[in-house]
Amino acid sequence: MSNPALLLKGSGEAKSRLYEIALNAAVQPIRIHQLTLVFPKSDWEIIVSTPATPSPKESHSYAVAECITVIDVLECVYMYLSEPVREHSPGWTSASSMEQDAVRYSLAKRKGKTLRRIDWLEGNTMFGGLEYIGGAARMDGGRWMVLFRRGLLLNAGTLKKR
């Protein structure tokens, strides 16, 4: 999965439209201020929330305070999947040897030196959307499964810790 901010650089009508979409509310038709993202095949979850006061360092800060946007979700997913995974972590030690082999294969295919969370996706690195799975009332955010699929648009080989 490539850094979402890189997808928004450049010019032209297509980039302008992509930027417009990225600043839309992540969940429609309601505008939420917090949601929990759950990742497939793992017990990983992260909470995405709008800050009380947006940071002026963020290029999309004017949209963040209003509600969680598409780019907020993509950036959080990207940062989370970029984090290293230690081979002595509970998720790793509880994985079967077949699962560990699949993760190592994904690491080798990515030509990485450090095992990262994205390797657990086993090549399914194209963002496929969010699916509401329950939890708190949907209008309060709730829990959302992050869906991934195989694809060439967002390539795991380009993932680098920034």
TrEMBL record:
Q: Which InterPro entries match?
A: DUF6699
* Pfam families, per the entry: DUF6699
Indicate the segments forming the DUF6699 domain, all copies. 15-131
Q: What name has this protein been given in UniProt?
A: DUF6699 domain-containing protein
Q: What is the lineage of its organism?
A: Eukaryota, Fungi, Dikarya, Basidiomycota, Agaricomycotina
